[in-house]
């Protein structure tokens, strides 16, 4: 019998974590590796994105007294062919905090009108959302520019540490690429601005699968299968998902979790490791508006491993959640039949 996770629906099959035929899955993993090789970052895409980033970096630093870094899937090397570039500018200036967006937008719009500009810039937008963003296309690559988003860099460091821990030729990153591709191209469930799952929420869900199965996978396809199988049976109406284990929504604001597994099997990440990462990478600026605020439950609740008051699932709409479980179950069944 496989391991027995907590937080599942009462109707979940007791055998949902059954052992898989190693020979059949080895063949399927070989084919999956060929697919991943077609969509993962390569020398050309790396060079192209690096050139665009350096161009945007110079542009921002010419109009702001600041430092500029990239974060997210580009430095993590988990972006898809259609993936964007996340850039953030850092400054201690209170004045720049108020005017940076207008200055950067003006600079980009000047480049858009300049026929001799180094790169082709178009569709410059100023999005005044929870996090203010300047969005544009540079050489047809989407670039999102923000200000003082230290959380993005902390998340990058955390995920890099996880990938180093899991190892196996970057199995964690390869699994993220495969599952992101499935979510974006096949099921169309990735995209916080459309009421769907954010990338960081998805990465946390993938990490949870590694955590409860203790990194015991043949390859990325098995991670995808376990992802579909587990989350189609998770009880989202009763629990928040956290790396410490499911947290009953009824007990909030108490964040005490029940163990991730009912059995005595070992988890990938121990409490000491999680606490250390939260302490090292959970730093937020003293100006952060939601600092000290309690976790607010929504329709789809995923607790940030680094800041427990941050709900990574807050973007997900109720309509999406109603379809989510059935959708994942159908695909997990299809994978089982195919293999």
From TrEMBL:
Gene Ontology MF, one: transferase activity
Domain of life per record: Eukaryota
Alphabetical list of Gene3D superfamilies matching this protein: 1.10.1410.10, Beta Polymerase, domain 2
Name the record gives this protein: Nucleotidyltransferase
Domain PAP/OAS1 substrate-binding-related: 166-318
Keyword set includes Transferase: yes
Keyword Methyltransferase among UniProt keywords: no
Keywords: Transferase
Coiled coil: none
Entries under InterPro entries matching the protein: MTPAP-like_central, NT_sf, PAP-OAS1-bd-rel, PAP/OAS1-rel
Alphabetized Pfam families for the sequence: MTPAP-like_central (PF22600), PAP-OAS1 (PF26180)
Domain Poly(A) RNA polymerase mitochondrial-like central palm: 34-153
